[in-house]
Amino acid sequence: MSENDKTPAPRPLTATHPLALAPVSSPPATVDGFVREFLVNLNLERGVALSSATETDKYLALASTVRDYLVARWLEDQRRQRADQSKAVCYLSAEYLLGRQLDNNLLASGLTDIATQALAACGIDIDSMRAHEVEPGLGNGGLGRLAACFIDSLATLSVPSIGYGIRYEYGIFRQVFRDGQQIEKPDAWLALGSPWEFRHPEAAQTVSFAGHTETYDDDGVLRSRWVPAWSVRAVPYNYMVPGYQNGRVNTLRLWSAEATKAFDLRTFNSGDYVEAVRAQTFAENISKVLYPEDSTPQGKELRLQQQYFFVAASIADYMSKVLPEDFDLTKLPDRVIFQLNDTHPVIAVPEMMRVLVDERKLDWDAAWAITQKCFAYTCHTLLPEALEVWSVDLLGRLLPRHLEIIYRINDEFLLAVRERFGDDERRLRDMSIISENPASVRMAYLATVAGAKVNGVAELHSQLLREKVLHDFDEMMPEKFTNVTNGVTPRRFMRLANPELSELITAALGTGWLTDLERLRELESYAEDADFRAAFAGVKAANKRRLNEVLLARDGFAIADDHLLDVMVKRLHEYKRQMLKVLHIVTLYERVVSGRVAASDLQPRTFIFGAKAAPGYAMAKRVIHLINAVGSVVNSDPRLEGRLKVVFPPNYNVTLAERVIPAADLSEQISLAGKEASGTGNMKFALNGALTIGTDDGANVEIRELVGDDNFFLFGMSEPEVEELWARGYRPGEFAQADDELRRALDLISSGVFSGGDRSTFEPIVSNLLYDDRFMVLADYTSYIAAQERVDAAYADRDAWTRSAILNVARTGFFSSDRSIRDYIDRIWHAQPVR
Ligand code: 26W
User: Fold this and answer.
1) What is the CA radius of gyration of the chain?
2) 808 and 685 in one domain?
3) What is the pLDDT of residue 606?
4) Verdict on whether the full-model pTM lies above 0.70
């Protein structure tokens, strides 16, 4: 029994009442049954009558009702997963960008129509209920959303699995614009309660921190133990993760931090009220807020506390709740695989070693053998600055025993390196998990040394990991490295986000494609069918009109339905090159205002942006300011005759993505080749019939290979060409000199015309491009503008464009997250779906 596991094993049932012994049943899946359940929840759970119920009452009662239909399956599944010995997947992720839950749970349980009719019978429009839900923004971007797509596919493929993470009280900040500049507002997503979670204080784990270690003699065996200084309670909140209409419901368990002793009455009575609750506030801080960085770790102690907090609670929970009491730990690798979603949870490796060696008293080698088979690591980045490194000082202070364990892991690893490569000091220094000056722990190296498998998230990314970022490790342990190209769940990003397209596809292919997305390939022949093309174009137009209504109501933006919708939605980061998109817009604007091009000759376009910048990322925030500034000038300049529009709705999130992506014509995937690990937005756009303009970066390469060069607007340098130019010495100014339009665009930005004549406002952006330009915006400009000309030409033949859009949908079924999960099962997990 580990020191932090107090909950007794479930007692055999002594119940006699037949109902108590029967499996939990769901309410009748009928309109009447649903109305009854809904009114019971409204009256009994909310304590209100329908006549006096608020919108919040109705929404929470509706959520409880849908929950009630899923709980039976959930409990049955938990019982089954506990009973059967099959291998399970524990997905450890510091982020889950879940999006709204109501529609997904209705879809998964096949209750959408029944609920719609039942609510209508109660005089309630389900649309108003949908709008009432606050999405849990427990993630930053790609990594967090991928985790959400993956747990959806794990449940839909009936893989026994549990997602572990943190229940942040405040998720990703709410973005508002003031004078075009980003302002961050706290995301109080729990304000109205969260109907989809089940709190289980009785299953809390105790997680400790700091203190010191000591060795002691344990019947002649020298052992180490950790004597922590303080601890907090990790309280689990369980969320249902329903599979798509397969009766499966997996669990997402998110931990919330609370004080071990909530309130110090004696201190309170002594009048020191603040001191009385200090422990509580201190503890709760751990799961208070999501770190809004998505590329540059700040190395903050609280971030490391967060990582250890959820990892330690998850391992204790798994080892005590899921594993039978007397489980033979040498068999652990047959029972579970812990997938590390980037390096954020990698402290799980020394934690597992501490539990196996210090608590379960296994010897080091046996423990290490088990640990190495129980973990696998997915890397999601290529930016050196995004690779987490923790100082030995901080780690030693916060987790002294774990640092000792990491040192021993490293010593034994370097012995193996020396054995294999001899006294190659460069290699030993470069492969050491511990780097010097200042002494730090390289978490990606720890994950690579400990993981059974290491994978990148797109072919090119995995190749670059092996050739560059982790080259020395690939030379030593090539068998560890593999690739699993990302994917997205078609349930949310096609069926829910684009119901009309889904109907059109089902009309052509029948049902089944939502769980077998490669069947979209059968649509290829329909691209040649004029009626189908007309219907397809009709769906796109309808989605544009719907987006127009949403943005009008949300932000007062209007979208002209004869405009080409050119969309760039993703986190704001220099490597993603939103500045290249800005230079395109300014170039078109400059052409007209300089009189070189008549506005009437322009292909009408609306440029839609969605992007949050990490609050501490000054250059990113400045680019957001510039986009809004260019937008307000372009949108109000009569010389453009309304043929160019810039629309930048604030607070881009999953819910907005579900509205924007189905309406898009052009998907902007324009990162510098070799910088975007994969991208997943690119997949969502292609699957919703948008054409991609992009570089050969991340998964763009695989999208282009599948859809064909004729159906993809490729531009820019390839990764080797980028490396070659970098090696040759990149002088961005030369590119500005070489391209007249580029210089004109840069000059226009410097001129202050977008900043009320104040040249200083955006000068830092222009000078950065001219004298630094780390992500080679200027080098790819000419090729990009030429590609945009090709886009205009292609869009002029709307029917051919539609044909190409249909082929994009038909040929991108590969990018289902179901396929990604199947690849993880085959190449890394070797866990089997449970029929
Ligand atoms: C510690 C700061 C931090 C936080 C998050 C560093 C790095 C991250 C993430 C790894 C960043 C991220 O979201 N990466 C994105 O992951 C997606 C899913 O694999 C990929 O599709 C994107 O290309 C990648 O940028």
Assistant:
1) 28
2) yes
3) 98
4) yes
